[in-house]
Amino acid sequence: MATDRTAVIGFPVDHSLSPIIHNHWIKELGLDIKPYEKINVDPNKFEEQINNLKAEGYGGLNVTVPLKELAFSISDETSSVSKKLKSVNTLSLNFEKIDGDNTDAVGFINSLDEKTIENNIANKKTLVLGAGGSARSVVHALNEMGGHVRLFNRTPEKAAILLNDLSINSSPVSTEELDDYANSSSFIVNTTSLGQKEGERNNILSFENIGMETFIYDLIYNPKRSSFLEQAEAKGLKVQNGLRMLIEQAACSFQIWHEIKVGVSGELMSLLESV
Fold first, then answer.
1. CA 47 – CA 70 distance, rounded (Å)
2. Fold agreement between 6-103+247-263 and 112-241
3. What architecture (CATH level 2) is domain 6-103+247-263?
């Protein structure tokens, strides 16, 4: 039976595109349930507000920053990947318990086609920029796909902790070796927020000597073409933004709650790109 009330929670959450995605599927499938909502939840009152939402009949919640670690901490049962990432982006609120899951890593994997995984990730050098919550999911996903993962962060200690937490046998890339390592990498993904604000540029890398077969991925999807992707495109490289990952992680959450498998349609992509 479909979960009747679902929403995305965050602080803030006004920017979220999740309602457009979930409500598209609800309408497409003709589900007799309430529209998916977005709700601001104060981190300082997190558990109290989750219990209130549970009492109001909410059965499924997507969780965005900065609440994913808090969602992990209040979950009675968590999936193996949530335990590894110490982060939850999907809550199922049952009468007797709260289940926590994380669909970010599988969403990232599902956003890539098999050819890209085979040619640019499996047994290849991969580079992740950033060491925040999103980086944890991406590093885990790349490792699962067989990539040789290294991580660059302006604070190397934070990168080292992340790699150690995920049991990745690797070391952070130093500032001095960044360009050389990037030039020999087959897949590079930006997980930082640089380039998200209007007029802001992401100049972490020089694209001058990046190999022509290198695949460039940016988790940012608004703007559609970040400065990071614009630089890569100017070089003639293959690029992808984070919109497909957003949809794929949402599809996994939707299946957890409603037990219905949904996909990424051209109509949905066009709907989101027009926002």
1. 8
2. yes
3. 3-Layer(aba) Sandwich (3.40)
Task: Give pLDDT tens digits along the chain (275 positions).
Answer: 458 899 999 999 998 999 999 999 999 999 999 999 999 999 999 999 999 999 999 999 999 988 999 999 999 999 999 999 999 999 999 988 999 999 999 999 999 999 999 999 999 999 999 998 899 999 999 999 999 999 999 999 999 999 999 999 999 999 999 999 999 999 999 999 887 777 778 888 999 999 999 999 999 988 889 999 999 999 999 999 999 999 999 999 999 999 999 989 889 988 998 88
Known catalytic membership, residue 68: yes
Give kind and range of the element (H or E) at residue 115: helix 114-116
Task: Give residue for tokens 């499924």.
Answer: 60
Residue keyed to tokens 């803030």 = 12
User: What is the strand order of the sheet 238-240 is part of?
Assistant: 148-152, 125-129, 187-190, 215-218, 238-240
What does the domain layout of the chain look like in residue ranges? 6-103+247-263, 112-241
Instruction: Determine which one of 38, 68, 124, 125 is catalytic.
Output: 68
**Helix (H) or strand (E) run with residue 7 in it:** strand 6-10
